Amino acid sequence: MTNIDTIRAEFERTNARDHRREPPKGNNYTDPLVQADWESFQKGWEASRNSMCVKNPFELIIGDPDGQWAHEVAEKSLRAQGFTVVG
């Protein structure tokens, strides 16, 4: 499942109670209000995921076993909390 598929699945679940909705035609909905909702939802979803990217607070220094251990523990902990670790 690609990112756009994941976003659309969440959007459809969130807005399932709106019975006037028709299935999308490609990346667009036929109802302009629903299309506006979809575009807003998509932007919010992307922004929320970008805010979940964090940098590991411990530098990975080759030859430093304590530093390497701290880096690995911090990365596992951050990922377990749902963050995407960069760097």
Automatic annotation (TrEMBL):
<dbReference type="InterPro" id="IPR058601">
    <property type="entry name" value="Phage_phiTE_015-like"/>
</dbReference>
<protein>
    <submittedName>
        <fullName>Uncharacterized protein</fullName>
    </submittedName>
</protein>
<feature type="compositionally biased region" description="Basic and acidic residues">
    <location>
        <begin position="7"/>
        <end position="24"/>
    </location>
</feature>
<feature type="region of interest" description="Disordered">
    <location>
        <begin position="1"/>
        <end position="32"/>
    </location>
</feature>
<dbReference type="Pfam" id="PF26207">
    <property type="entry name" value="Phage_phiTE_015"/>
</dbReference>
